Amino acid sequence: xxxxxxxxxxxxxxxxxxxxxxxxxxxxxxxxxxxxxxxxxxxxxxxxxxxxxxxxxxxxxxxxxxxxxxxxxxxxxxxxxxxxxxxxxxxxxxxxxxxxxxxxxxxxxxxxxxxxxxxxxxxxxxxxxxxxxxxxxxxxxxxxxxxxxxxxxxxxxxxxxxxxxxxxxxxxxxxxxxxxxxxxxxxxxxxxx
Length: 193
Ligand code: GRF
Hints:
The protein has seven helices and seven strands; from the N terminus they run βαβαβααβαβαββα. The protein is an alpha/beta fold. Helix 1 packs parallel to helix 7 (166-190) and helix 6 (122-130) crosses helix 7 (166-190). Residues 10, 12-17, 85-86, 106-108, 177 line the site of 5-O-phosphono-beta-D-ribofuranosylamine (GRF).
């Protein structure tokens, strides 16, 4: 079996990244070989240090969008899949072309609702609350050139209570993310994708 060498892209605290790293620790066929961030002070980079995973900080958005120096680095590291875990920039075309159906994202809502530009973090949960939704959840999907638009790999729901505020909704959704994201990635990789 060929080995899956994952790279995690994250911009923030990295709680999903941490669950993924822990989940695949000791795996024979899947390793986390690189963490990429667009923020030098992102907490996810502390995780890279703790777990001794190489890290790469993207210098600026223009170079990310237009140059393929990051791609050369991913290829040098023999990265096979890119896992987005709270990465806030749109993925450029050259990366999507180099990794077709091999870039996975998680979104903290039931897409196509509450997706698209600007729908990230608490913005999502506030919008869910404002619409008085009785359920929310997560969508794990492949990445294409538009925000939150690729084929769905899994959707998981949670019930919301009338009294849940946006913070409480965020907590319920994050629990789902932490449990399911590593497992859905594993299932997808096992299917040979
Ligand atoms: C998660 O809610 C994920 O769905 C979204 O960004 C958030 C990242 O959180 N794409 P964390 O940094 O993994 O804690």
